[in-house]
Design a protein that fits this description.
34 helices, alpha/beta, 43% helix, four-stranded mixed β-sheet
Length: 1005
């Protein structure tokens, strides 16, 4: 035998070569899943048993995990092949289980003593299969057993046993089987679910209630998908259904009991009596004796008494031969249901009264017509939740049930039951192990008065324990099988090459068809210069004619519209003084909006008044809305903000809205020469929630006239963002004497990831702002010198007119004298602008209706801020429509409240703002903005209370005022655009309330 020295640096191929004595060029090795494949080649085919003997002895002395990568999963079995060089198929193949090397060696030694060419039956010890070892519950054996199937798909397997906690006052904790599957790709869960379920359930493992399959792609830290497999033994499933009186389940149990007596069983149910026919199990010739009556009754009666089938009062047992018309003997048995009223009611009658256990059994029986398939894979499982007047039904299975095959069956069955108090059914489907459903379907059985749709309830991931699969197994080691990327790179290269070829051919064809370009190898006789000149003349003439025609048409349009336009202008002039802006004009604007909205609603189809919408899931609400007061809409400033931000010398902050709000604020400073009197700052709740125009006018009525207010709200702004803007972005001379910080608890959550500030901190503008702050602190004269030098440079620069500009001006003057529309170009511009504004107004009215019906956040983001930095939204929060297109996220799953704590980085930033404003003698007012009752669930209420206590502790600081409006209008949905943001109507009310607050020290001009 060759001596093998294990060395971490040796490759597997070198190790095999040293172990077997075969040249390295004759050895090929491949890792696939948990399997190691070794191919041995030579000019003559290597001898099977001699090669295996050398290799097995080397395996006894070597740990293969030392020779593989540290990230490679364990090797469970080795496949050894032998063939002659040049042949396509191996001459022999042998599988070696690494946990049974001693038995393999004994088998090989026996074979070496015998004539391997003549004797095909190998002697020696019996090799125990992985299946037999896996039935004992050993996790390593289970992994080897599954690897036999999954390794062919390139999936490696690792099995672990972990205890899981059960609810209080229950049995001691049990073990759960975890199967980790690792591969270089993401296998479809539906591809692996049922095969794995069948193999695991076939083992009939004891001590495990279920198994969790975790699929993970190599190199990824998070699992790709989870799958739960019910490991309840088939016998337990049969007894559970037999307990409810299922005839097939009872027949299976009785057959197992009587099979040892060579007696077959046929079972039927008529009314409340079970009919059991005992016949010979094997009677092909018709000579088998009739089953003995006493023996059969002795076996059947204890089983039926132990099962106590629901709703079955008695059983009649017959003894006969198969095919006989009359039984040889007959007997009657009384079952427990006859003496116990609890067992007397049938499952269907119990379901009609609303018994959930009976409904679950009947639904599972309906959805699993094939009993064998249910016992093999676990079948479709049903979970029920009766909430208010709705019955929520969750269906899960290793492969998500198909909606078309399940939903209609369930709703039809529930409709037939007529359960008291149930007015609607909601059906969900998911893959076992998932918490959220993949699809949902709903039908209302009766007209429901409640218009707010129910959110998807929290179903248990298993039938007993809530949220037991929520925690991710991120602590598991990353399994990384050996990867080869040559095939992937080859495929990518080929696809890219084909795409480039197609693109070039298309572009070439287009250019040649335009006759402006020719092929380089085309002869001159087919492409004379005269033909090119003709083509140029034709296209030039067409262009000139089109220009003249357009100019003439525009001239005619202007000639017709000029008199009427002047007439309209003269009529509208006297009414202009009556349209002065006032606090009451918001009502008129609201009436106009309501009129357009109601007008668009009259065009809806007549079937809109139906109880259900298109999906038949929720009822629509077309009730008219009340007119609400709001400040008049002002001119949008988004385009101006984008242009100003692009021209700004300040680098971007990687937060577009911060760049644009800063540009608008700088423009306001340049226009007025002084900072605004009041600055509103915060997140999107400030951006949408405080109207500067309404606040300024309300303050004027309180004796504070002509106050300039600017809204510096930024979507996603936290305390860190506000701290950076006030301390580093804006100069102290650019700040007002009072700052209104409008926000809420989630902006102060130090436990969640601050995405906005993280993006801001990675920007070039952030670095420059910090450098600027440090420079300003060291040198106070630098900004003044910079300004003076900039002014001198501007004065020295003189405009220069180039030759091109001079020629362009002369051509414009020449064409202007000929053109019919050039002299009226201002009127054309005004006419086109009017048409576009009318189109934009119609689009706005339509979009407002769509948004009111419940739109996505993308449509809201398209709304533009005005020149005061305020985002006015006319959307009114309607839960009945909003939650049709948006998920209802409870507080315990809201990332904004994740790991909620007021201490941390946000608190540090807030303390810096407090110190800075006190040093600068700036009054800081924090307003906890209103929220809807729909948003304030118990979890969020608890966090809000913590935030309230935190703010009240800080309210003792000088120049700091805290105002709580969080529960000002919890049920006034018309003031909100979504559950946590105000619309322009709510912003108007908040602005008035702040203006009337006597504790806020408003500045006096």
């Amino acid at each position: 035998m060759k001596t093998v020295l294990p060395d971490r640096q040796q490759s597997l191929a070198q190790w095999v070569s040293q172990a077997t004595g075969i040249n390295t060029f004759g050895v090929k090795v491949r890792l696939r899943g948990n399997d190691l494949h070794i191919l041995c080649e030579g000019t003559e085919c290597p001898q099977r048993w001699r090669t295996l003997s050398d290799l097995l002895q080397a395996l006894q002395q070597t740990d293969l995990d030392i020779l593989t990568s540290s990230e490679q999963t364990s090797i469970y079995q080795v496949f050894v092949y032998g063939r002659r060089k040049g042949e396509q198929r191996p001459s022999w193949c042998h599988r070696v289980h690494l946990n049974q090397i001693d038995k393999h060696l004994e088998q090989v030694e026996q074979a070496l003593l015998a004539d391997s060419e003549k004797s095909k039956q190998s002697g020696g010890a019996l090799i125990v299969s992985n299946e037999s070892l896996a039935r004992q519950g050993n996790p390593e054996a289970i992994a080897r057993y599954l690897s036999e199937t999954l390794s062919t798909l390139g999936v490696s397997v690792l099995a672990k046993i972990k205890p899981y906690k059960k609810p209080k006052n229950s049995q001691p904790e049990e073990n759960r089987l975890w199967i980790f599957c690792q591969s270089s790709y993401s296998p479809d869960a539906s591809l692996l679910a049922e095969p794995i379920a069948q193999k695991l359930r076939y083992l009939k493992l004891s001590g495990y209630q279920d198994a969790i399959i975790v699929s993970q792609v190599s190199g990824e830290t998070a699992p790709d998908w989870l799958l739960r497999i019910d490991l309840t033994p088939p016998e337990v499933m049969l007894k559970e259904w037999a307990r409810w009186g299922d005839v097939q389940a009872i027949a299976r149990l009785l057959t197992e009991v009587l099979s040892g007596l060579k007696v077959g069983v046929q079972v039927s149910l008529k009314e409340s009596t079970l009919h059991i026919f005992c016949i010979p199990a094997f009677d092909l010739l018709g000579t088998a004796p009739i089953p003995d009556k006493a023996v059969c009754l002795e076996a059947i009666l204890p089983q039926l008494e132990a099962i106590a089938p629901q709703g079955i009062l008695a059983a009649t047992v017959y003894g006969q031969k198969a095919g006989d018309m009359q039984p040889t003997w007959i007997d009657w048995l009384t079952l427990p249901a006859a003496n116990n009223p609890i067992f007397a009611t049938s499952p269907l009658d119990l379901a009609n009264t609303g018994d959930e256990a009976a409904i679950v059994f009947l639904l599972e029986r309906l959805l699993n017509p094939d009993l064998d398939w249910r016992l093999l894979t676990g079948g479709i499982r049903v979970l029920l939740l009766n909430k208010n007047d709705l019955l929520h039904i969750m269906c899960d299975a290793p492969v998500c049930p198909v909606r078309q095959q399940v939903a209609s069956k369930i709703t039809q069955f529930i409709r037939q039951l007529k359960i008291p108090g149930i007015m609607g059914v909601r059906v969900y489907g998911r893959r076992a192990g998932n918490k959220e459903p993949f699809w949902h379907y709903g039908v209302d059985l009766e007209h429901r008065q409640r218009l707010v749709p129910e959110a998807t309830p929290e179903f248990a991931a298993t039938s007993q324990y809530i949220n037991d699969l929520v925690t991710s197994e991120t602590s598991e080691p990353i399994l990384r099988p050996e990867l080869t990327t040559e095939e992937v790179q080859s495929l990518v290269t080929e696809v890219a090459r084909d795409w480039l070829t197609t693109a070039r051919a298309t572009a070439k064809k287009f250019l040649l068809n335009s006759q402006v370009f020719i092929e380089s190898n085309q002869s001159a006789e087919h492409n004379p210069d005269v033909q090119g000149i003709k083509i140029a003349l034709v296209w030039g003439t067409l262009g000139l004619l089109l220009t003249l025609q357009t100019d003439w048409v525009l001239g005619q349009i202007i000639a017709r519209t000029t008199p009427s336009s002047s007439k309209v202008a003269s009529v509208s002039l006297p009414s202009s003084p009556e349209r002065q802006a006032s606090l009451t004009s918001g009502k008129n604007q609201s009436e106009k909006t309501t009129f357009f909205t109601s007008t668009s609603k009259t065009k809806s189809p007549p079937n809109q008044s139906s109880v259900f919408n298109a999906s038949e899931f929720t009822q629509s609400d077309d009730t008219p809305k009340n007119n609400l007061a709001a400040a008049p809409l002002k001119e949008k400033a988004t385009a101006t903000a984008i242009l100003l931000a692009a021209r700004s010398q300040m680098p971007s902050f990687n937060v577009r809205q911060l760049d644009e709000q800063l540009a608008l604020y700088k423009q306001r400073l340049a226009t007025t020469g002084t900072p605004p009197d009041v600055l509103i700052i915060g997140s999107s709740r400030a951006l949408r929630g405080v109207d500067p125009a309404a606040l300024s006018k309300a303050l004027a009525t309180q004796g504070y006239p002509n106050l300039d207010v600017f809204n510096f709200g930024i979507n996603g702004a936290t305390a860190q963002v506000v701290d950076f803007v006030i301390l580093h972005v804006l100069e102290p001379s650019e700040l007002p004497k009072i700052i209104i910080w409008a926000d809420g608890a989630r902006a102060f959550n130090g436990g969640r990831e601050d995405i906005t500030f993280k993006s801001l901190a990675a920007s070039a503008g952030y670095k420059q702002a910090l450098q600027k702050t440090a420079t300003t602190a060291n040198s106070n004269d630098l900004p003044e010198n910079t300004v003076n030098s900039g002014e001198k440079k501007t004065k020295e620069e003189k405009p220069e007119i180039s030759t091109y500009e001079a020629v362009n001006q002369s051509l414009n003057q020449a064409l202007a004298s000929v053109s019919a529309s050039y002299k009226n170009r201002d009127q054309i511009k005004g006419l086109l602008q009017k048409q576009f504004l009318a189109f934009d107004h119609n689009q706005t009215v339509t979009s407002e209706k769509q948004i009111t019906d419940g739109t996505s956040d993308e449509s809201i983001s398209e709304q533009a801020v005005d020149f005061d930095g305020f985002l006015p939204l006319s959307i009114r929060f309607n839960p009945a429509r909003y939650y049709q297109k948006h998920s209802r996220v409870p507080g315990n799953y809201d990332n904004d409240y994740k790991s909620f704590q007021v201490e941390g980085q946000q608190d540090t930033a807030f303390q810096e703002v407090l110190q800075f404003t006190q040093a600068q003698k700036i009054s800081l007012v924090f307003v906890n903005m209103p929220l809807t009752e729909d948003y304030l669930d118990p979890v969020r209420r608890q966090y809000e209370q913590q935030f309230q206590q935190y703010m009240l502790r800080l309210a003792t600081n000088p120049n700091f005022i805290y105002r709580d409006l969080s529960q000002q209008w919890p049920k006034a949905n018309d003031y909100f655009s979504d559950p946590s943001h105000l619309n322009r109507f709510g912003a108007y009310e908040v602005s008035k309330k702040l203006a009337n607050d006597p504790m806020i020290p408003w500045p006096v001009k």
